[in-house]
Amino acid sequence: MFKKTLLAVSLAATSLISTSAYAIENVDLLIKNATVLTMDQDKTVFDNGLVAVKGNKIYAVTDGKDINEYKAIKTIDADGDIVMPGLINSHTHASMTVFRSMADDVPDRLHRYIFPLEKKLVSRDMVRIGAQLGNVEMLKGGVTTYADMYYFEDEVAKTVDQIGMRAILGETIIQFPVASAKTPEDGIKYTLNFIEQYKDHPRITPAFAPHGPYTNSTETLQTIAKLSLKHDVPVMMHLAESDREREVIAERSGGLSPIKYMESIGALNSNFLAAHVIDANDEDIAILKKHDVGVAHNMSANIKSAKGVAPALKMFNDGLRIGLGTDGPMSGNTLSTIDEFNQVAKVHKLVNKDRAAMPPINVIEMATIGAARALHMEDKIGSLEVGKLADIIVIDTKAPNMIPVYNPYSALVYSAYATNVKHSVVDGKLLMEDRNILTVNEKAVRDEALKFADIVRKTVIESGEIVQ
Amino acid sequence: MFKKTLLAVSLAATSLISTSAYAIENVDLLIKNATVLTMDQDKTVFDNGLVAVKGNKIYAVTDGKDINEYKAIKTIDADGDIVMPGLINSHTHASMTVFRSMADDVPDRLHRYIFPLEKKLVSRDMVRIGAQLGNVEMLKGGVTTYADMYYFEDEVAKTVDQIGMRAILGETIIQFPVASAKTPEDGIKYTLNFIEQYKDHPRITPAFAPHGPYTNSTETLQTIAKLSLKHDVPVMMHLAESDREREVIAERSGGLSPIKYMESIGALNSNFLAAHVIDANDEDIAILKKHDVGVAHNMSANIKSAKGVAPALKMFNDGLRIGLGTDGPMSGNTLSTIDEFNQVAKVHKLVNKDRAAMPPINVIEMATIGAARALHMEDKIGSLEVGKLADIIVIDTKAPNMIPVYNPYSALVYSAYATNVKHSVVDGKLLMEDRNILTVNEKAVRDEALKFADIVRKTVIESGEIVQ
């Protein structure tokens, strides 16, 4: 079943020295004896392969026969485990970890609970503490890159910088006063400052994140679209997510769908990432494709809120840029993309009444190179190919739930837990080894989060404001 | 939100000495400083409670204020972690772990792949090796009792006896020749021997397991029903699961539904456990209730096979005996009931278009006391109550995915991984401590399974018989 192709090492590398059969290459990291899922164009799999890393880039991905040609500073023997591109979580609100497990199943939750809760509790501290916990959770779950929308994203940026992950961080802009901005104009200014501060960071991409079309004015959305093109930064937004959104936008636009409305005001382009896209017909999907928009598919959160199942199968088959996201931890409720895998594979089978629909290989595509495409970063991340940034994870295949592996995609999608991730490499640097995070103190992160949870408990639960 | 009630220690205990405020009670195991989810009638929760065990029974469950009244041979400080009844997996085929991740998404899989695969590979060795791995996976995932249907269940019984878990083990009876029996009559004889052998085992309940109504004759089903009443053992069967089943039974019975047919032949009674029950209307559900039948709800497997969503919400609300099951590892594909939690909570919300449907507390009920009811064992297991058998698990609430816990049911259902289970007690005996299984050698179990997987690979995959 699995093609064995030797990648030409020199192929994608302009600045790299190509290897020969006789020279010894000095590399920084070598992962050997691996079941390598490259997620390249041909979905090449090496059963006993290797991945070599030099600096922050992938230097070689091979069938392992050339193992003696590399001399590495650090070698990891995968012992048959799965080695694959780091997972990309294309939509989240990491800082909301500190609110997780609160009032999960109440109707109209966003407007009745979450917005008031945030008004009371969002602060620089909350954002930092929540993001730290979210980062730890994601890194331990195999996420190496995430796309975040929240407030005080410069605080999130500091935590991402510290732990060593990769992120696209979008400052939320919304029509009512929030902790980081009194008005949408203030929010735009805040974002421009943030962009200025982080535009040259090697792992962090600053972005605009208007909350949604119905929670921002047409003028705000148009201003953001223009500024995003001027500064060449992404725009991330919740789109086609809810009935309320459809109603508000239909009233505003004379009956347009949210996606048609966004097109009509000139706010869709190839810098755009739309989260959710549940409420989209074939015409809407064609519009997203036409404007090269990326889509974040958040199955777990969408079905938990009973909003429905996004037409992700069609979007995937139509060749849209689509990746998996977890949504925030008040929605999903976990942040590791692995937790989405089996739900994505199974629920599309259920709603399409077809057990062959959405096979595991497509789910893994949406978690890696598909999500990279959604973020318009497929030239840099999302697959194990020579010259790409070295974001790599190793999955333990000896945990009881993972035995045996007749098909690695099936094993990952139907059996793997986030806790089966063993090692994580981001930008060429080993950030987690044998499930120990090497860059931040996990216990300190946890203790700070638990302390903040006590404040939350006193402020909104014991006061009776949030009824569980 | 959480009631704090001191359970009267002497209440359910006839043979137990009741405690007084001043005496010191010697107990075998004490779990203290716990968030105790009792799953009793009132769903009592103790925020800082304790559970005391004497012999194989629960001796006390309290709010912890009486902590100084117990002297224990072994004390576990839960440090705020969740302590709850051991999970009950009400439907599985544990031995099939050795086939996991094979040909997952092919149409008509049972008849085209699984039956031929089993014909070739089922043996006493296969059953033992697969069950050993399944046991380890389940115990590590918090399952303390499971209901199994397969061949050579006496081999499964030996593994259950060894690891120390609790199980209801049903020998499969089917109309074509299988490894353990040439005919259904042979299968019945095999089961009677098995019953004789295990009828007095403290943790193992032998049972009949006719495969399904459409894969057995009316006569076989009637014989089994009579024998099960005579020997007072359970009957477990796949029921109302597939279109093929409906067609075959309709033809056989002049248009009856599978459930109506089973009633018409006198094969439903309070010894019966029906697995799946997807294809059931209100009338069918009423029949199951009338005959006091238990139901195993296997969400994950049912949606993966695109068979549909069982009307579990209605069955639960109508007061049927209903619990969660995982189905076998070629279906689900994991065996830990925790993996079902979020799918059960979310998919019922989705199909009922109601985010308040199937709240976490009901999911936890179906995983514990509900599943005990489905197995007609609610007087013995399923809740932490004085006098019940001591099957107890401790869930780590300090893993990053579990922080914070504002609502323990929500945290369990929407956030917990099987790997968050820390300790497991079955029949009063500590079987897993800090995720180390104390009764079997996990590595040896794994190695034997991997070795058998190589045989599977050579026999059916490399020969091209199974196309992935």
From TrEMBL, chains A, B:
Alphabetically ordered keywords of this record: Hydrolase, Signal
The entry lists its GO molecular-function terms as: hydrolase activity, acting on carbon-nitrogen (but not peptide) bonds
Q: Per the database record, which ranges form the Amidohydrolase-related domain?
A: 82-430
Reply yes or no: does the keyword Hydrolase apply.
yes
Q: Which InterPro entries match?
A: Amidohydro-rel, Metal-dep_hydrolase_composite, Metal_Hydrolase, MTA/SAH_deaminase
- Please state the span of the N-terminal signal peptide per the UniProt entry: 1-23
| Protein family according to the UniProt entry | Belongs to the metallo-dependent hydrolases superfamily. ATZ/TRZ family.
Per its UniProt record, what PANTHER family does this chain match? AMIDOHYDROLASE-RELATED DOMAIN-CONTAINING PROTEIN, AMINOHYDROLASE SSNA-RELATED
- Per its record, how is this protein called by name? Amidohydrolase
Q: What is the lineage of its organism?
A: Bacteria, Pseudomonadati, Pseudomonadota, Gammaproteobacteria, Vibrionales
